[in-house]
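Shipment paperwork, digital attachment
Item: protein structure file
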Amino acid sequence: MAQGNALGALGNIRSTPELWQKITFTFLILLVYRVGSHVTAPGVDVNAMIAFFQQNQGGGLLGLYDLFVGGNLSRSTIFALGIMPYISASIFMQIGAAVIPTLDKMQKDEEGRKKITQWTRYFTVALAAVQAYGYALFTAGVTGAVVNPGTSFTLQMVLFLTTGALFVMWLGEQITERGLGNGASLLIFFSIVERFIPSIGSAFGFVSTGAVSLLSLLAMTAVMIGVVAGVVAITLAARRIAIQIPQRTMAKGRQREAAKNFIPLRLNSAGVMPIIFAQSLIVVPGAIAQFSGNQALANVADYLAPGTWLYFVLSAVLIVFFTYFYTAIIFNPADVAENLKKQGGFIPGIKPGAKTADHIQDIVTRITLPGAIFLTFIALLPIWLADLFAVPFQFGGTSLLIVVGVALDTMAQVQQHLLLRKYDGFMKKGRVRFRGRNAGVGGF
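Attachment content:
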């Protein structure tokens, strides 16, 4: 029996044992992650670290990292590094496969993918150890943050934080294998969402103190709702290329009329990665200046501070560049054309093989530009809104893209489970579609 509304879909979820077990398991893993996020690394004064982040790192590189790990970095917990070392290692391997033929070949068979997964884990260990060492030195440099700084404290921090990062990686893999959705993406999603409620409370606190007018808050809320709707629309938007795949009748061996299908090319294939790459590069001079005390780099960081014209121009250029760069890495038209040719399929009016690959590449190049412009708009909009409504806070365009993308991916998986059991999903119309394989770790 079919239920057409959301309440009916929730009832169907409860009556689908496999799906219910996956959801329950996922929530249990997230609960473990939440508990670990309150275990502070030994030897650190949490209050001193939180005060330092509030004063110095709101929009810096560490502030961006702290967003993705749910505040664990500023609280110096054993999960301070979060899932980010594993994601960084995965992205490096993904980029390596695009430039190293051996890795690209390994990705195309099961045994090769298993080896790449194992290498990614080893790389995660190395990255986590390096990041833990850097964070230990950074923590020791914060006034009053470390009780007994020294070699013992540094080694202790490296051990605890590296172990914590590997445990978080294991939690993410467990969700991917036995739970619902992509584990790494869900951990970041959970880290961002759990900070929404305190942020909402802070916004109303500004209204009660008179720092922000109620009208400004309502106007900004209306704009944010519109932005969320736009993000959902662009995230799901895809250019469909019509293809035809011949079908054969097995009994008589005669070819029937070709079946009409589509290749969906997403408008925003790169996800949130271009914004992350661009912001990471822009804040590098300030981060280095803070640690080294270099005045020249500090001056450069002032010119690149959020709100300056140079920041806007450089951000736009970098986001557009990385959108094309990352799209070229995660999407290979030659592979699509080759797979289509093996199935006997073709694009009407286009020769199979190289001509098909060129045709797909031309379309991807054209549709990537509006996707890049959209990402630039989302990245810079929070700064404009904060200035326009004169509010002392910003909503994060980067976090919004991640939350929407992961939520849509997870909803699509729930939808597929329900439809396999002959149930309707959450929506009869406008079902979640066109979410590609790169919407997980690499594309958030």
